[in-house]
Known about the structure:
α4 (115-124) runs parallel beside α17 (466-478) and α15 runs antiparallel to α16. The protein is built from 17 helices and 16 strands. The chain has three domains: 2-53, no CATH class; 63-338 and 440-478, Alkaline Phosphatase, subunit A (3-Layer(aba) Sandwich), CATH 3.40.720; 345-433, no CATH class. The protein is globular and about 70 Å long. By secondary structure, it is of the alpha/beta class. Zinc ion (ZN) is lined by residues 71, 115, 287, 291, 333, 442.
Amino acid sequence: MYTxxxxxxxxxxxxxxxxxxxxxxxxxxxxxxxETIAPIIIATDEPEATAVITPIPLPQLxxxxxxIGDGMGYxxxxxxxxxxxxxxxxxxxxxxxxxxxxxxxASFDGSVTDSAAAATAVSTGxxxxxxxxxxxxxxxxxxxxxxxxxxxxxxxxxxxxxSLDHATPAGFFSHVDSRRSYAAxxxxxxxxxxxxxxxxxxxxxxxxxxxxxxxxxxxxHAFEEAPVSxxxxxxxxxxxxxxxxxxxxxxxxxxxxxxxxxxxxxAIARLTSPEGFFIMVEGGRVDYFCHYNDAGSFVAELLDxxxxxxxxxxxxxxxxxxxxxxxxxxxxxxxxxxxxxDRAALLRQTISSDTCDNTLVQECLSAKTxxxxxxxxxxxxxxxDNLTEVETALLKEAYAKTYFNNSPNNSDExxxxxxxxxTACINLVAARAGIRFGSGGHTGKDVPIYAIGxxxxxxxxxxxxxxxxxxLLQAVAKxxxx
Length: 482
Ligand SMILES: [Zn+2]
């Protein structure tokens, strides 16, 4: 951890030096190769004291990382940040990036976007109708930034913790009028020619292995299966899936731990080349757990994405004159607000609501475990120490409902989609942490963007999400490869 923080400080120092080196370049003007290599000679009154300082090469934008936390609004980031501080842990890696902005997220047809329209706006620079991917509101196909950069020779990676055909990753390779058109989205993935995909399976493509081979991809299901050679195109469709698709929740740990960081590392290893790369990395489950009001789990997903950002920062420290890192979100989910509370409670939860339903609750039901025997198990899994009488009574009532009214996919309105005892536990964690969810849906709130590196100056201010695409093109034009 110390090394990571040190790398980051070095990276930020290098960024400052690099910006100083680039001051002579007017906006839109690129440095010549001669300028790039010219040494700086400082003459003093003493001839023997003449010093030759090794030049810092002027920047060229070769490597681009775009991190998207799905549903990751300002308050989600603040909650995670304060939970880390309250637990005396290292802060989020991107909070002090030198350039920050604020992004408006409305779609073409509403002030509240879905992930498809948001991904399309970010990737193409055009607002569209919720549910559309890579099409404008009149259903015209629009080239996206990944395709544009692929066409200029860069290598492309698309990484996500949800399924490979989900809206956010699909916004960078697909062109369909429904985010649910999974077969067509998968067709577009195989036709993209992109170099690396990583995610949690496909919704409706049982013939994926054959399709991969037909389209020149090697399809693997675990990191250990990655070919040594970085030649050729690769799809990592992880076996660590959540039901049939999507990577397991980060909070559940185990083999899932640092999956996105490992995927980012594999992308860097495979895509680093003289032609450069564009890597989109989605932390896809912040949204999911905000929809279901599971605060401990959304924070774990956010911290999981931050681990991946740290990999990008380590790369940036080695390539400061060639790398841009952006961290942003597509929209806010859950209308999260923060009040007085013990934010560290968010980090004491160690099980997702889904996994609690599927394991702990089922085990208690099948063993006919009494409330008194079950309580320590739930308290431990959710980090609910020193329960008050009122809290214990709430859990007891919820456990009784779980026990006597158990049915698959319990839809008791009072408790939502999860088993009553699971819902009572996540509600207690949120209450202790001072987190409130105003809804189970998306909101129209602005989201932050954090930028560091070559071209980051284009990302300050308050602007529409379409500007992320436009600013990327401006940055690429200002700092061409030489
Ligand atoms: Zn959502």
